[in-house]
Amino acid sequence: TFCVLVIIFMLYLLVIYRKPNVNWGSSTQAAAYKSALNAAINLEQVGEHVKNYNPQLLVLTGKPLHRPSLLNFANLITKNHSLLIAGHVMEEKLTFKKRQELMTEGKKLMNELKLKSFYTITDGLPIEDGVRTMMQSTGFGKLTPNILMVGYKTTWRSCNSDELKQYYNILHTAFDNRLALTILRLPNGIDCSHLIPDSDTVDPQDLQPGVVSPAAFANSPAAQRLQKGLMPVNSNLDLHGMVPSSGQNTVTAPNPEARQKSTLAATKEFCLFTGKQPAGYIDVWWLYDDGGLTILLPYIISTRSKWSDCQIRVFALATNRASMEEERNNMITLLEKLRINYVTLTMVTVKDKPQEATIQMHRALIDTVLEDQETDTFVSESERIQLEEKTNRQLRLRELLLQYSKNASLIVLSMPIPRKGIVSAQLYMSWLEMLTKDMPPFLLVRGNQTS
After folding, report:
1. Furthest CA-CA distance within the chain
2. Cβ atoms within 10 Å, residue 225
3. Concatenated DSSP letters for 68-101?
4. What pLDDT score does 379 carry?
5. Residue 444: strand pairing partners
6. How many angstroms separate the CA atoms of 313 and 233, rounded?
7. In 200-335, beta strands by DSSP E
8. Which of 26, 153, 174, 284 might form a disulfide with 148, Cβ 3.0–4.6 angstroms?
9. Of the candidates 439, 357, 362, the residue with the CA atom closest to the CA atom of residue 405
10. Between the CA atoms of 418, 421, 425 and 431, what dihedral angle is there, to the nearest 10 degrees?
11. What is the DSSP string of 37-70?
């Protein structure tokens, strides 16, 4: 027996010394798969109730490297506790090899950024159909998204009508599939793809969340690659595509100062929502009963260590001034029942007429998309008059936001629902524009009407 043990031990040492390049795996990994499978099956038998609700996010990031701030913000909500899936919809039909390359690139980025999330791609479909397919097929069992998160479309006035209709219809598709909807708007926008020369020029390992200072990040290897434009050996650089059309073999060097500014701008996008947040306020405008998601998400964010210095201020809608005190007491009781820690509760009303300057500001906004007989999507004069009262509510709400929340660290507001067939895409986007324009980071939230 002793000899057998010695032989086994020697063979073990030999294997360790030679380090054969084989993929044997381990029994622990096999057990992990079995445990995960059994847990997912057992979860199917568990009924839904308040104690097992988790916000499970499907985030339309496109290429994750192009919208890091959107992904980082979503991670604030789901980190270590619930499901996060980054979705990428492509109209181009991908080959298996290209699809695997994109999947590997996306997974590597998330691993290096220490994001506990998944990355999925839907290809070969129009954007609208691809998003619908992703909503209906992503995940399995109880591990399926219940919240769709998208970035705010800042180009809604300049994009073509088909592109705007796609975006607008995606919002409706989320509601049709009983998903909650969130829209994130940042002061400098969500998409930073124009700041990154090529995704292959940035090593995700250089984009660690711990690097939170733009000045410090500017000296990092990633920033140096962005400045120098260096390409790694395994890049997909097409040398033929770099030959100038004039036939000359010279390439004009970019302005160093402009490149430095671009690098710093990209740096800020990667650093958003990853560092310690200074003391401030998370302002929650809980205006409609949507199941409580509008108050839940900011509460979750406030419990994160990096946002622990930010306190919650709650703003609620009063139906009229006469019953404001009674409604305030009811809201206090509800917040105590939900065990939400907050510093102030303010009751507001949006029945007052907005100031003339605000009305004119909105009028100037929609004048650019006012009725045009050559397009089938427009803000008609009849629609503007018919929905004037609803529009005035949003304009008055903007004035209140400027009055109370202009200096907040984050604003979370109940999103108005666009009525299909009644509110046009342009008018609805003008409402959102008025609510979020020139504001701090802004999250529009609408639950799926379930408690």
Report:
1. 96
2. 20
3. HHHHHHHHHHHTTTS-EEEEEEESSPPPHHHHHH
4. 75
5. 183, 413
6. 51
7. 280-286, 310-317
8. 174
9. 439
10. -40
11. HHHHHHHTTSPP-GGG----EEEE-SSGGG-HHH
Residue 439 CB neighbour total at 10 angstroms: 18
Task: Kindly state the tokens that stand for 83.
Answer: 């499901």
- Residues, the chain: 451
Joined tokens for residue 260: 């430095």
Return phi, psi of residue 62, to 5°.
65, -140
Question: What is this structure's pTM?
Answer: 0.81
- Pair of tokens at residue 230: 């260096």
Residues whose CB falls within 8 Å of the CB of residue 159, separated by 6 or more in sequence, listed in order: 153
Is domain 280-446 annotated with CATH 3.40.50.2300?
A: no
| pLDDT-derived band at 451, boundaries 50, 70, 90 | low
**Average pLDDT taken over every residue of the chain:** 82
Number of other residues whose CB lies within 10 A of the CB of residue 262: 19
Neighbours of 250 (CB within 10 A): 7
Name which of 257-271, 302-316, 398-412 the model is least confident about.
Answer: 257-271
- Provide the 3-class DSSP secondary structure of residue 371: coil
Q: Residue 269: is it exposed, middle or buried by C-beta count within 10 angstroms (0-12/13-18/19+)?
A: buried
Contacts of 430 (CB under 8 A, 6+ apart): 362, 365, 366, 369, 379
Position with higher pLDDT, 24 vs 259: 24
Token duo for residue 415: 């999103």
H helix or E strand, kind and range, residue 443? strand 442-446
CA-based Rg of the chain, rounded to a whole angstrom? 26
Which DSSP state fits 242? G
The 8-class DSSP code of residue 313 comes to E
Where along the chain do its domains lie?
51-232+254-271, 280-446
* Fold (CATH) for 51-232+254-271: Rossmann fold (3.40.50)
How far is the C-alpha of 312 from the C-alpha of 341, rounded, in Å? 7
